[in-house]
Amino acid sequence: MDAQSLGYAVHVSDPVPISVTEPLPNGDRRTFQPLSTTLVHGERDAVLIDPPFTRNRIEEVAAWVAAGGKNITAIVATHGHGDHWFGTSAFAERFCAPVVATAGTIAVMHGNVEARPFAWDKLWPGQIPDAPVTAVTVPGDTLSLEGHDLRLVEVGHTDTEHTSVVHVPDLGLVVAGDALYNGAHMYVGESAGGGLDAWRDAIDTVKALAPRHIVAGHKNKDLDDDATRVIAETRRYLDNTETALKECASATKFFRTMLERHPDLPYGRTLLWVGAKTLYALREPDADPVAAAVGAWF
Ligand SMILES: [Zn+2]
Which residue ranges form the domains of the chain, and what is each CATH number? Predict the structure, then answer.
């Protein structure tokens, strides 16, 4: 089988509103990020990566997958944040396919299940289906799709711990989860104490795979997947984050500074604010990381 039969398609789910009604410091309504779901497909079979997590968006994406007419052989989650996998059980049932992730991602999934009552289910009451951790690892973290490899590559800390990307060498494709962003503010709330440098290392790992296309887990659907641009812009955002964290004495100042430096990003301002509140809360003595991360949403 040649590479002609292999391809990929992306469905970007529009951001869902959040239950917190207080506006952001710039007056915006709070919404989540757009969510990218990727279908890597052969002639008959396909692998689904990072399905959405709220009921309405799950229905939309399930209809999109069904319309493609492919037999789903696996559902992959790139990392343990619930927005990338709380929907996997719903898809696994509907399409009779296993959920696959790396061991590190599976460990982080359990932490996100514990946080559901305090965070996810308060932000989206009644909208997230039951999501037990059903993900399994596969030998060598590699799936085969009609003879083509899909490799789950561990990249370490990005916007959370133990993240991975899916590399499809025969397409020059990396489905990056949240290792890279494309046209949205980034969630840096888990990057205190060296996290930004670890994230840069993760980007170097992705770059070494020499992808031509990168699908970011959170992207502006009007933008392409050009790997060189996506890598450069993600790095620039991390650099600006580091500078602003040094310059700004408060979360509000940091938020406003990042908006000024990235006026071209219509998405992710809520995540920018939540990350800012978390990092500045952690500057207080004896701050608890989990309490800071959860409290920043409300
Ligand atoms: Zn995410």
Answer: 3-295 (3.60.15.10)
